[in-house]
Design brief:
binds 3-[(carboxymethyl)sulfanyl]pyridine-2-carboxylic acid, Phosphoenolpyruvate Carboxykinase, domain 3, globular, alpha+beta, 3 domains, binds manganese (II) ion, 28% helix
Length: 597
């Protein structure tokens, strides 16, 4: 061990876990570059990683074909009562789940090293930061955690002898018998995979998957599922939101926190390059926001993460030049194509496809091959500090004051380009009824409409009806200092399937209107579903877009919204009596406004 650990609870937990999992060795991570380089060298030598000749200090991994994404069907919130997990979560009673998983963990690290990763979610000197310790038998996870969190000896210092931490136990679930050769991506079969959360104990147990959100436990498991429970208990917010700073030509700063379900261009928006002259944007976070009311009564946000774990396919110099520049060096790629000259490639990268490469399954691949070369959920892991537009305040311990909340989803129809909520309760209603058409980032049918309240359906660690109430309570506490709430849909299409809105940097035109609303200088039209700009209220200068498209983007289709009501009612009915009365009232009010004709 490169440092002394004075925290006896941690020492004890590591000891007990080693006794249960029976690893060949225990290694306490120090978080240094040398440690990262060593582990990468070992993984290259073992054949599980490929060093990329074309990108300094970059590596490619290929997962097992069965282990390619978060598995919501195997993700559990294990509270004493089923109703405390609520209708949006899978539930197994803690004793039963622990019994099942303990059997799986017994001897599960045989032949492997057990790594202990102390990590901080949030800058270590932030009063909002929280400490976790991940135990894992995956060196791939260790390297990713180096990038995604602040990890190592400095966290042990911050923890001290009595500090609290969230224990996060992870195993790929593939013990090695003596002499048994390892595989490139060890994992367990689907029916043995468990991503389990025990909120009463602030405890995370993950077994059987080495991929992304299933294995990098600081991210979805801690910073969202467990953090939502902590946040409610302690009076703050843990949200699935990017954080963005917009700067007007006059130099005024606006901070936006925006929630979108997976695969709605969230990383692109986090790193937006505004097309409106004089407007600038800086990225503070791309996925998760922790927010607390500050001494001045405003809501302050930090990004608890230190890196980006972004979807590679579709990321290009056209869609997200800042992400492309972020991943030029010191990045990890998973399930991308390996080109013959030692680079990575993916569908939608903007670069010509290589004439030959190796696909994510390790097979020869050419542009004529029947399957995509990269998995649709292929990922890059890269340090946030490498993003050219990372804000100078992205690690500010106190966070940044949020002016605007944005919710959104991917809908070909119905939802207009932008809507402003009438007030906080209406904004909570917009968040609670957010919906999106599914894509490959989560396992399940592609293209189905799914209600994804606050983009938190897979990530809320308690009954979502109570989470809605927590939002209402936070609004009550924030009062007149509460951020304004908007809903956007960049993904409207014509009946012929053409995009109505160009998206990407042009989304800054919509953000500008939001800022002007905050400043009280932009008009809005009252409609049954909320406040909308007219075409004249949006800055469309220099944008080549047909007036008919704009009209369509801002049209409120009363009949379509009336047809939407039964689905909203059905969605809310899932929460039974626990649904806050104030949201029931919102449904009635919307129905009344739509009915007025
Ligand atoms: O498939 C995974 O394990 C990654 S999921 C993910 C990764 C980064 C940011 N967001 C998400 C998500 O599913 O929301
Ligand atoms: Mn996400």
């Amino acid at each position: 061990m490169a440092y002394e650990v004075k925290n006896q609870r941690l020492v004890q937990w590591v000891h007990e876990t080693a006794a249960l999992c029976q690893p060949e060795a225990v290694y306490w991570c120090e978080g240094s570059q040398a440690e990262y380089d060593n582990l990468m060298a070992q993984m290259v030598a073992a054949g599980s990683a490929v060093q990329l000749k074309q990108r300094p200090n970059c590596f490619l991994f290929r997962s097992d074909p069965s282990d390619v994404a978060r598995v919501e069907a195997r993700t559990y919130i294990s509270t004493p009562g089923k109703d405390d997990a609520g209708p949006t979560n899978n539930w197994i009673a803690p004793d039963e789940l622990k019994g099942t998983m303990r059997k799986l963990y017994r001897g599960c690290m045989a032949g492997r090293t057990m790594y202990v990763i102390p990590f901080s979610m949030g800058p270590i000197d932030s009063p909002m930061a929280k400490i976790g310790v991940e135990i894992t038998d995956s060196p791939y996870v260790v390297c990713n955690m180096h990038i995604m969190t602040r990890a190592g000896a400095k966290v042990i210092d911050a923890l001290g002898p009595d500090g609290d931490f969230v224990p996060c136990l992870h195993s790929v679930g593939a013990p090695l018998a003596p002499g048994q050769p390892d595989v490139a991506w060890p994992c367990a079969p689907m029916e043995q995979k468990y991503i389990s959360h025990f909120p009463e104990e602030n405890l995370i147990w993950s077994f059987g998957s080495g991929y992304g959100g299933n294995a990098l436990l600081g991210k979805k498991c801690f910073a969202l599922r467990i953090a939502t429970v902590l946040a409610r208990r302690e009076g703050w917010m843990a949200e699935h939101m990017l954080i963005l700073r917009l700067i007007s030509p006059a130099g005024k700063q606006y901070h936006i926190a925006a929630a979108f379900p997976s695969a709605c261009g969230k990383t692109n928006l986090a790193m937006i390059q505004p097309t409106i002259p004089g407007w600038q944007a800086e990225c503070i976070g791309d996925d998760i926001a922790w927010m607390k009311i500050g001494p001045d009564g405003r809501l302050y946000a930090i990004n608890p993460e230190a890196g980006f774990f972004g979807v590679a396919p579709g990321t290009s110099y056209q869609s997200n030049p800042m992400a492309m520049d972020t991943i030029r060096e010191n990045a990890i790629f998973t399930n991308c194509v390996l080109t013959d000259d030692g680079d990575v490639w993916w569908e939608g990268m903007g670069a010509p496809a290589p004439t030959h490469g190796i696909d994510w399954k390790g097979r020869d691949w050419t542009p004529g091959s029947p399957e995509p070369g990269a998995h649709p959920n292929a990922r890059f892991t890269a340090p946030a500090a490498q993003c050219p537009v990372i804000s100078s305040d992205w690690e500010k311990p106190a966070g940044v004051p949020i002016d605007i909340f944005v919710f959104g989803g991917r809908r070909a129809g119905v939802a207009p380009l932008v809507t402003e909520a009438f007030d906080w309760d209406h904004g909570v209603f917009l968040g609670a009824t957010a919906s999106s058409e599914t894509t490959a980032a989560n396992i399940g049918a592609v293209g189905n409409l799914r209600r994804d309240p606050f983009a938190m359906q897979p990530f809320c660690g308690y009954n979502m009806a109570d989470y809605f109430q927590h939002w209402l309570d936070m609004g009550d506490r924030l009062g007149s200092q509460a951020p304004r709430i908007f809903y956007v849909n960049w993904f409207r299409k014509t009946p012929a399937g053409q995009w109505l809105w160009p998206g990407y940097g042009e989304n800054s035109r919509v953000l500008k209107w939001m800022c002007e609303r905050v400043d009280g200088v932009a008009p809005a039209q009252e409609t049954p579903i909320g406040l909308l700009p007219s075409a004249a209220d949006l800055d469309l200068d220099g944008l080549d877009i047909a007036p008919d498209n704009i009209r369509e983007l801002l049209r409120v289709d009363r009949a379509a919204w009336q047809a939407e009501m039964p689905d909203i009612e059905k969605h809310f009915a899932r929460f039974g009596d626990r649904l806050p009365e104030r949201l029931r009232l919102q449904v009635q009010r919307l129905a009344a406004r739509l009915g007025r004709g």
